């Protein structure tokens, strides 16, 4: 981010050295006191300096809530239930997903392995028909140069490990606190009434989705207490985000037992009962005499190839998938979040993409489907179809490629290839591998300024904001009935306008909240 030349009267207001120091002091202490924190990265604190992993640091966060168009915010929230319904329907359509997988399995080993897990369980027979989605649909505001209008365009739809719900609600609380305590005392004061901060109950809402699945789980015999397990990465820096959901579940009456299971420990800490229902049983390593029946498995790991370093990792995923626990997500739901699915939905066809939407949204009106379509940006395959061949020409053109981003099927930040880096990247790969990527037109957001506190240092200048809307959805895979479908709060991530990626955990973005304008 370049140094800001913002003067008093602009938003955010210019700060004196003393004002900056006061805000930073407040943010640092409030964040640690309220769990708006992460484990410090090794570049900040080495493992020798923190051998027992006890340190925490303030998550990168903006000093002020960023301006965000009210109409765009309300539009994103209003269509989340429709998006939940859409992706639940996609997860139920095995034939559609098979066609998607068949297109890329030869060049995407990870997708192919996920599909094999599904086929193995299908052959044996699924015992659990319920499926839970804790989704997040990510958008950016696109400012049209043709008509001057602004609207939201979808960046991606996340179906596994949709993170930061726990930290997002804390960020909203931080900015609300600052608007009451610190902003009114600035040289250019901001009153609480001048900052419209929408409520954000993402922690409670996401935990409520897990609780609904927990309550819907049916056990044959009341032999063991039921629990929820969070499947996590062995070394997780974003632990407090996850803990907020865990603590919220434990506030329920009665309390919901929650246990964290590192992905590498699934096979040693869980077993499948030798019964027709194939209950998933969990034995806490600190209490080996106690056995829990797992009602819900919530994946905060398992979304990328690095979580599957060997065959035992795939055996672990198979063990969970074939069990009676409600999965969040199931394999099919995870595959529904592949970028190829987003591309198929968004790429215009001869019969128009609305016909593809109507395949999954049979109860929706044309206007409801049009509302969803309006959030699509131009996305193209890189296969050998007419659309794919046209997209290849764009991707290889040194000038045309500057308006696009190349995306693999991966979840998580740091995987995308931008603008002028696209042609040399594609040329480094065999052409047969190109079809595992999609080409997306880069969204052009309106200019916004803010200040980001990262590792104790303030960065000032132009920023780009990405809005995520959470959703919770529980459905029956056999009957196709949607049992629960709700919007579940929001996330705003902000990055410097010179940064391509926006992932906070990947080290690019920062937490933020919306000031509606």
From TrEMBL:
Keywords from the UniProt entry: ATP-binding, Glutathione biosynthesis, Ligase, Magnesium, Metal-binding, Nucleotide-binding
Residue ranges annotated for the Glutathione synthase substrate-binding domain, each copy included: 227-336
Cofactor note: Binds 1 Mg(2+) ion per subunit.
Enzyme class, spelled out: ligase
Co-factor(s): Mg(2+)
Pfam families: GSH_synth_ATP (PF03917), GSH_synthase (PF03199)
Binding locations of ATP: 156, 339, 407-416, 418, 440-443, 466, 495, 501
Pathway in which this enzyme or protein is active: Sulfur metabolism; glutathione biosynthesis; glutathione from L-cysteine and L-glutamate: step 2/2
Magnesium is among the record's keywords: yes
Binding-site residues for Mg(2+), renumbered to this chain: 156, 158, 411
Reactions listed under catalytic activity: gamma-L-glutamyl-L-cysteine + glycine + ATP = glutathione + ADP + phosphate + H(+)
Positions contributing to substrate binding: 136, 160-163, 236-238, 242, 300-303, 493, 504-505
Superkingdom field: Eukaryota
Keyword Transferase: no
EC number(s) stated in the UniProt entry for this protein: 6.3.2.3
GO CC aspect terms: cytosol
Gene3D superfamilies: 3.30.1490.50, 3.30.1490.80, ATP-grasp fold, B domain, Glutathione synthase, substrate-binding domain superfamily, eukaryotic, Glutathione Synthetase, Chain A, domain 3
GO molecular function: ATP binding; glutathione binding; glutathione synthase activity; magnesium ion binding
NCBIfam families: glut_syn_euk
PANTHER family noted in UniProt: GLUTATHIONE SYNTHETASE
Subunit structure: Homodimer.
Family: Belongs to the eukaryotic GSH synthase family.
Protein name in the entry: Glutathione synthetase
Organism: Hymenoscyphus fraxineus
Taxonomic lineage from the root: Eukaryota, Fungi, Dikarya, Ascomycota, Pezizomycotina
């Amino acid at each position: 981010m370049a140094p800001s030349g913002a003067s008093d009267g602009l938003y955010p207001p210019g700060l004196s050295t003393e004002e900056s120091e006061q805000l930073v002091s407040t943010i640092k202490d409030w964040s640690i006191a309220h769990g708006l924190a992460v484990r410090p990265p090794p570049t900040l604190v080495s493992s020798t300096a923190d051998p027992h992993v006890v340190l925490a640091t303030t998550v990168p966060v903006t000093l002020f809530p960023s301006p965000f168009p009210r109409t765009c915010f309300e539009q994103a929230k209003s269509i989340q239930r429709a998006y939940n319904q859409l992706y639940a329907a996609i997860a139920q359509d095995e034939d559609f997903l098979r066609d998607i997988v068949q297109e890329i399995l030869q060049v995407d080993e990870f997708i192919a392995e996920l599909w094999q897990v599904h086929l193995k369980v299908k052959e044996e027979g699924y015992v659990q028909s319920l499926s839970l989605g804790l989704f997040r649909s990510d958008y950016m505001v696109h400012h049209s140069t043709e008509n001057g209008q602004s609207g939201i365009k979808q960046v991606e739809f996340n179906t596994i490990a949709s993170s930061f719900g726990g930290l997002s609600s804390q960020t909203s609380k931080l900015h609300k606190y600052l608007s009451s305590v610190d902003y009114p005392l600035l040289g250019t004061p901001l009153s609480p009434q001048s900052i419209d901060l929408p409520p954000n109950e993402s922690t409670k809402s996401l935990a409520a989705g897990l609780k609904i699945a927990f309550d819907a789980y049916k056990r044959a015999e009341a032999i063991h207490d039921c629990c929820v397990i969070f499947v996590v990465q062995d070394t997780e820096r974003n632990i407090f985000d996850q803990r907020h959901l865990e603590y919220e579940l434990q506030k329920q009456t009665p309390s919901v037992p929650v246990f964290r299971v590192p992905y590498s420990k699934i096979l040693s800490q869980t077993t499948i009962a030798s019964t027709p229902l194939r209950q998933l049983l969990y034995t806490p390593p600190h209490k080996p005499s106690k056995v829990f029946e797992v009602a819900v498995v919530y994946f905060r790991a398992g979304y990328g190839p690095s979580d599957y370093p060997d065959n035992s990792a795939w055996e672990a995923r198979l063990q969970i998938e074939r069990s009676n626990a409600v999965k969040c997500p199931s394999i099919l739901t995870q595959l529904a979040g592949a970028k190829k699915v987003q591309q198929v939905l968004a790429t215009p066809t001869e019969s128009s993409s609305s016909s593809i939407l109507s395949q999954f949204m049979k109860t929706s009106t044309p206007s409801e489907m049009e509302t969803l379509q309006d959030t699509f940006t131009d996305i193209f395959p890189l296969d050998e179809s007419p659309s794919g061949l046209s997209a290849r020409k764009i991707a290889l053109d040194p000038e045309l490629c500057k308006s696009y981003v190349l995306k693999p099927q991966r979840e998580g930040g740091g995987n995308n290839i931008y603008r002028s880096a696209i042609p040399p990247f594609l040329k480094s790969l065999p052409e047969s591998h190109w079809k595992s990527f999609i080409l997306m037109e880069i969204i052009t957001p309106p200019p916004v300024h803010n200040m980001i506190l990262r590792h104790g240092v303030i960065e000032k200048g132009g920023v780009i904001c990405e809005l995520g809307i959470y959703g919770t959805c529980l459905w029956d895979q056999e009957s196709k009935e949607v049992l629960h479908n709700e919007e579940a709060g929001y996330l705003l991530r902000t990055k410097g306008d010179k940064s391509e990626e926006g992932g906070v955990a990947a080290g690019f973005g920062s937490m933020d909240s919306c000031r509606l304008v």
